[in-house]
Amino acid sequence: MALAFSLGGFVGCNAILGNEPEYRLVSGDAGESGVAARGGSAGRPGVSGGTAQAGGEGGTGELPAAGSGEPGPGGASGTGGAPSSGGRMDAEGGEGNAPGVTGGSAGEPSGGRTGTGGNASCEPAGPEQCFNSIDDDCNGQVDCEDEACGSGTRCVEIPSDAVFGSFDGSLCDPGVDSIELYQGLASDGQCTGCSCTPTSSDCDAGIYNYGAKACGGFDFTGPLQNTFASSCQPLAGDTKIHFYTIRGITNCDASGTPSLPPVSWSTQSSFCIEGRAGGGCGAGSACIADSSDGPECILLKGSNAACPTGYSRDVAGTWYTGYSDQRTCSECYCGFKPGACTGARLEVYPMFGCSGGGTIVSNGEEGNACELPFGAMSARIIGSADPINCDPQSYPAGDLNPSGAHTVCCR
User: Fold this and answer.
1) Which residues pair with 195 in a beta bridge?
2) How far apart are CA 264 and CA 52, in angstroms?
3) I need a labelling partner for 23 at 20 to 30 A (CA). Which of 43, 62, 146, 231 fits?
4) What is the pLDDT of residues 161-201, one digit of tens each?
């Protein structure tokens, strides 16, 4: 609307239509200068890490007295907020308010500087990978806690010294890392690497005297007397004797360097390691793929490790990853091995030195001579032994124990 008023005979007319750009004096003598409009205050600094704040408002000039005074200075431009350390958009300067009367210009907006990224030390490597314990997309969230991993992951309890995976007695899929576990450590009894070479052979049979004891039993008088084909054996002059089967014997020389026998296990199985076990789950847990394929298992060190809540110990008991072998081998030697004695017979004599006419009491078999016509003073074997190869022998001594004890827990 239009407003006319009279000041000392002069008429002034202003147009007031909302926020007009200026007021004009229509006529009259010069009046006092217009009062300068107040400038806008500077915008507040942006909060660290947030969005920059808006600038202050431009001031409104005060109403001057009528006249054609000099225009007052315009309102100071509002400045944008200081840059945030991570704001996501440019700040905008403050807007000027209504212009000052008679010359007060509105403050001009001045934009703030562009904010920086959320984490200056993180360099995005692509989408979140979910199982590598790395914030791949630099959004401050790792693996299971990142929405990008969605419902395909979940957190499971895994002690810090445990390995997560599956264990069902079958082989792991190709490309899956595994830990081989064993039970039932065993080893052959003898060391290997020895050999024997025959050097001589002979025939042998043992003779006992009955003395005053009944002939035909197994209650003898005196020690066993060994009789050979290669020499004459003195006897005690008894008319009742017991003799054993004639056998061939071979003497051998041992040679070689003994080696410990191989070690074997009665049971072997594979613990398949779940390679997809990431972070974002807090202490004592790991991020895994949310799958129901097979039982979930953990491998703990020690033979008596306690299974976490919800897990059950494998019924097979303790598993091992290796063994400790503290054994050593004895020197090689050749064991006794009986053979045949061709044409063998046992003769006893009434005199020492196998003289005085002998009596055959055996053609190689075991038996008794209960009514000799004389007291047997000597004996010998007639015949020759068939040479044979002796058995090389060496036995280990020391400790062989399983090592790397582990406990398997599954649910």
Assistant:
1) 255
2) 73
3) 43
4) 788 888 987 788 888 889 999 999 999 889 999 999 999 89
d(CA 402, CA 324): 6
Query: Does residue 223 have a pLDDT over 70?
Result: yes
- What CA–CA distance (Å, rounded) separates 191 from 331? 10
Would you say 373 and 317 are in contact if contact means Cβ atoms under 8 Å apart? no
- Residues near 295 by beta carbon (within 8 Å), at least 6 away in sequence: 166, 167, 168, 410, 411
Give the DSSP letter string of 282-334. -TTEEEEE---SS--EEEEESTTPPPPTT-EE-TT--EEEEEEE--EEPPPEE
Contact 80/65 with Cβ under 8 angstroms?
no
pLDDT, tens digit, for every residue of 270-298?
999 886 777 788 777 778 777 655 678 88
Q: Can you name the residues that pair with 382 across neighbouring β-strands?
A: 345
What burial class does residue 337 get, using C-beta atoms within 10 Å of its C-beta: 0-12 exposed, 13-18 middle, 19+ buried?
Answer: middle
Question: For residues 300 and 311, is the Cβ–Cβ distance under 8 A?
Answer: no
For 215, list phi and psi in degrees, rounded to 5. Answer: -75, 140
**What are the extents of the domains in the chain?**
1-72+88-115, 192-259+333-392
- Answer positive or negative: Cα dihedral of 222, 223, 227, 231: negative
To the nearest 5 percent, what fractions of the chain are helix, strand and coil? 0, 40, 60
Instruction: Tell me which amino acid residue 135 is.
Output: D
Residues in the chain: 411
What is the dihedral angle through the alpha carbons of 402, 404, 405, 408, rounded to the nearest 10 degrees?
-130
Distance, first Cα to last Cα, the chain: 86
Q: What is the CA radius of gyration of the chain?
A: 56
DSSP state of 161: T
The answer to whether the beta carbons of residues 297 and 273 sit under 8 Å apart is no
